[in-house]
Design a protein that fits this description.
The protein contains 5 helices and 16 strands. It has 296 residues and is α+β, with helices and mostly antiparallel strands.
């Protein structure tokens, strides 16, 4: 079955960047699987939480009845029917400049291709398994005939969006012994050098590195296999995550409870986020030789 040439409902479709070949590196997005009836509400929720408007929305009824939207570093994947086990197991979506080039890059990393490249309305896609078992969906965006860069329709984005000092990143935790190798792997996968933050503090003392839109956390204690790990992290400006609650904490609709024992908070879509506080000193590059050498 060939991919349709145009969306069934182009009036609801927008992408601020319909051609991902202009990207300099892959854009990694955390994923949240939700019911399609909740999509509008959750778009607005995350727009206010992150202080940024959605930059794509794609109804794809011919591809499993899905509708997708991206806000910041989060991809909302909505469906009117249940998700498959492999959809639930997939941790990240990557928008890549070239799917062919990305798959060629992965061939030397021990990555296996679970679903080979296929054409879809947004462009092309494949699903892969990274070393260690993490699943990711790779998507190459290309414009359909006549498509131009476009933002959301007027009135669909909150008019009072303000900077919140909150950044949402996908989170990947490993045991300390695997931390450096994991950071180097994702530097290759995401084609960007890692950065570390000497004053990034969270619920536990840990090595941390940010690679693109991914927070890699190295834990000194072995991770229990029977305890679900948060898939995302909220990076909050200094003073916002601990004693003084930031404005988004009070204003975000239907905000879930915060668990002070685990340093996590419940977000819309039954998603749990680990909270990290960022000092005002800003990020700095760390030489590879000393990457992860210190603790918070």
């Amino acid at each position: 079955m060939s991919a349709p040439e145009r969306p069934a409902n182009p009036e609801r479709w927008f992408r601020t960047c319909p051609d991902s070949s202009v990207l300099t590196r892959p854009r990694l997005l955390a994923r949240s699987l939700i019911d399609v009836a909740d999509l509008d509400e959750q778009i607005h929720y995350y727009e206010r939480l992150l202080g940024t408007p959605a930059d794509l929305r794609m109804p794809i009824p011919d591809f499993g009845g899905l509708e997708l939207a991206a806000v910041g570093n989060l991809l909302l994947i909505a469906s009117a029917r249940g998700f498959t086990p492999i959809q639930r197991q997939t941790s990240y979506s990557l928008i890549v400049p070239s799917l062919v080039a990305q798959l060629a890059l992965l061939s030397d990393t021990g990555t296996s291709v679970l679903e080979p490249a296929e054409s879809i309305l947004p462009g092309a896609r494949a699903r892969v398994r990274y070393p260690g078992g993490t699943l990711a969906e790779l998507v190459e965006h290309r414009p359909w005939q006549g498509e131009r860069p476009r933002t959301a329709a007027p009135g669909t984005t909150p008019a009072d969006l303000l900077a919140t000092g909150v950044q949402l990143l996908a989170r990947h935790a490993v045991n300390d012994a695997e931390f450096l190798a994991t950071v180097r792997l994702y530097e290759t996968l995401l084609q960007v050098p890692a950065i570390t933050h000497p004053r990034l503090s969270g619920p536990v003392a840990a090595h941390t590195a940010i690679v693109g839109n991914l927070l890699v956390v190295g834990l000194s204690r072995p991770m229990p296999h029977d305890v679900p790990q948060p898939r995302v992290a909220l990076i909050v400006s200094e003073g916002g995550a601990t004693d003084a609650r930031p404005s988004w904490w009070e204003d975000a609709p239907a905000h879930g409870p915060r668990d002070t024992r685990t340093g996590t908070v419940a977000l819309a879509g039954d998603m749990t986020a680990e909270i990290w506080s960022e000092s005002c000193d800003g990020f700095h590059k760390t030489p590879r030789a000393t990457m992860g050498a210190g603790r918070d």
